[in-house]
Design goal:
Chain lengths: 141, 187
């Protein structure tokens, strides 16, 4: 079950972070995301310049005690991160996360195509927030 | 007298050259954005500028419209509004509108569009809530109709970006101009 979704820009500036929890509990997600960024950079460096086709989904980045962090990097070096809580073992978390990242990418593209969006700044559009929230809620099923 | 032959929307739409809708939307969006920057967020001036730009476009667009669509002369304002909604908008924007809310004399009507490709992906932020994003379209109506001797005033009444359920433009016929000939009296 995905508890937090984050979009980080190319300069490691947060563009959007949302979770289904309150602000205080979300703070620890900020810490986890920050640590995950290091792993992200490592993975991208490891992938190197030799690959012909760049697979955006990076899969499981690293597990902590309660959560696992999945990553997805786009061609413009914008990073999507998902913090997943262990649910039961039957659900294929990988597939769920892959699906969610696809929808997140599409929602991100729509938000960025808005002429009033300023590049490099946080996405300040309420419909985007609701879209992400519904993605989070849908992933629970 | 046989009725004027008004071609259908899809008939005029298919042979016309098309561009990518997203390119069009993004270009229009960046025009609006740049105007807002140039006029330092003064929404009223931007609305006026958009309308002027639309007027200049409309003045040139009417010739292309009349050339590409084999439309015969409209007898009254009702036919004109129908032709704009069904043929003109379809030909240039790819969507057609419906004409409603005629007033008693037949000089005012509303063009209602459910869908507008100019505003895809757009979300108006709070500080621009008075911006008439589609004001260029109002100017196009005014410019095009002025070239066929009809002076109209067009305003944006309903706008989906501001929370309404459709796009509605009110067209008001002010006067029908007589053809003017540039002759001097003493020649």
């Amino acid at each position: 079950m995905i508890v937090c979704l984050a979009i980080i820009g190319p300069a490691n500036n947060p563009l959007h972070i949302s979770s289904l929890f309150s602000e205080e509990e979300s703070l620890k997600f900020h810490y986890i995301l920050h640590c995950a960024l290091d792993v992200f950079e490592e993975r991208i460096a490891v992938r190197g310049k030799g690959t012909a086709s760049i697979e955006p989904n990076l899969g499981l980045l690293y597990p902590t005690e309660d959560y696992q962090v999945y990553g997805y990097s786009t061609a413009t070096r914008v990073k999507f991160l998902a913090i997943v809580e262990e649910m039961d073992e039957k659900t294929k978390i990988d597939d769920v996360v892959r699906d969610v990242f696809k929808h997140l990418h599409l929602a991100y593209i729509d938000a960025v195509s808005n002429p009033f969006h300023q590049h490099g700044y946080a996405i300040a559009v309420p419909t985007f927030d609701t879209k992400i929230k519904s993605l989070l809620i849908d992933s629970r099923k | 007298m046989p009725p004027a032959r008004i071609p259908t929307g899809p008939v005029t739409f298919s042979p016309v050259e098309k561009i990518n809708a997203e390119l069009f939307t993004l270009t229009y969006g960046s025009i609006v954005r740049q105007l807002l920057i140039d006029y330092e967020d003064n929404v009223e001036s931007v609305n006026v500028q958009l309308e002027k730009m639309g007027y200049n476009i409309g003045v040139r667009l009417i010739d292309e419209f009349l050339a590409k669509s084999s439309c015969s002369r409209c007898n009254d304002f009702r036919e004109t509004a129908d032709v704009i909604a069904k043929v003109g908008l379809k030909m240039f924007l790819g969507v057609s509108a419906s004409v409603t809310n005629w007033n008693a004399e037949g000089t005012e009507c509303s063009l209602v569009m459910e869908d507008n490709p100019m505003v895809d992906f757009v979300e108006l932020p709070e500080q621009y809530k008075n911006l008439s994003y589609c004001n260029m379209l109002c100017g196009v109506f005014r410019g095009a109709l002025e070239m066929v001797n009809m002076k109209v005033e067009s305003t944006c009444v309903r706008d989906m970006l501001r929370g309404h359920d459709a796009y509605e433009f009110r067209l008001r016929l002010l006067e029908v101009l007589q053809d003017e000939y540039p002759f001097k009296d003493d020649e």
